[in-house]
Structures are given as C-alpha cells and as structure tokens.
Design a protein that fits this description.
single chain, mainly alpha, two-stranded antiparallel ribbon, 8 helices, about 5% strand
C-alpha cells in the first residue's frame, strides 16, 4: 500500500518537471587561472620550445638505469584448487550434538559451539556448585576470564507458566 502511494507522488507532474529541468540554463564552469592553460604558451616562443626539446643528458642517465630483480621465484603447490589455505590450529571434538550432519563436529580450542554454550549456561544455572567457572574452563578448553564473562553476561531463557487463576485476574 505504501509503495503505491510513493509511486503516485514520484510520478506526479513528471512531464512538466522534466521540461522545466531541460529548459533551465546550465551553470557556467568556473574560469581557469591563466597560467594553468597550455593554450597561452605560444605567447612565449622560448617556453614552448623548452617543453618539447629532448635533453640528451637526461636520456643518457635514463638509459644507464637498469633494475634487476633478485627475488626467488614463488613455488605454488598444486593442490587441485580444492581447499584454500588456512591456519592449522588445535581442534577438539564437540561434547554434544543431536542434529546429525548439521552439527559442528570439531571446534577450535578456545571456542565453543552454540549448543555447547547453551548447555554449559543451563548446567551452571541448575547446579552452580558442580559446574563452576574453573570446571567449565577445563572441560571446554576455554580461558577462565572468558568463562567468567560468559557466566556473568549471558543468562539462558526460562519459561514460566502462570496458573489459570492469575490469567483470569489479569484479563478482568
């Protein structure tokens, strides 16, 4: 609905606006400084001759310049283009996963998957004495400061159902 309204305003009086824009006088460009023009060089015959004259001394100096590249040729491994090179880091197998092929099987050390994050947050919420920050850090190969930040700033959702009497009290 909004697109139709916008189209009406956009196409309103298009022809007269286009004719008005075409008939408008075009802006004049700013004048150039007289010394920046090469057209006025013929006024001084010596300057134009100096511009187009070849300097033999400079040409001989330019011919003496020779650059040699001493870099070793780069060898490219023939990998068949299957995989791009990536940093090989230590990986660990994930603790959970019930989604089969969709699950992440290996995670770099120092990181966790989303399923693991939700599980460890829930475990800590239910049993904070057993699932301490130190135990979580050791279990999932994480740094202690990262685990402390995770437990402090992320809280899993809780579902609360209210009794039917409360629902009636709210409606009325």
């Amino acid at each position: 609905m909004g697109a139709r309204l916008a189209r009406v305003f956009r196409t309103f009086n298009v022809e007269s606006r286009a004719h008005r824009e075409i008939s408008r006088e075009k802006p004049r460009p700013a004048p150039r400084h007289s010394t920046s023009r090469l057209d006025e060089v013929p006024d001084h015959p010596g300057i134009k001759e100096e511009i187009y004259r070849k300097d033999d001394r400079l040409l001989t100096l330019l011919k003496d310049v020779y650059v040699q590249s001493r870099d070793l040729p780069v060898r490219v491994k023939d990998g068949g283009g299957e995989h791009l090179p990536h940093k090989q880091g230590e990986k660990r197998l994930t603790k959970l996963g019930h989604l089969g092929d969709v699950d992440v099987k290996k995670v770099p050390k120092g990181k966790i998957s989303i399923v693991e994050a939700l599980t460890l947050l829930n475990n800590h919420k239910l049993n904070p004495q057993i699932w301490t920050a130190e135990k979580i850090a050791v279990e999932y190969s994480l740094e202690l400061k990262d685990v402390n930040s995770l437990l402090e700033f992320f809280i899993p959702f809780t579902v609360q159902e209210f009794p039917k009497e409360t629902r009636k009290a709210i409606k009325s």
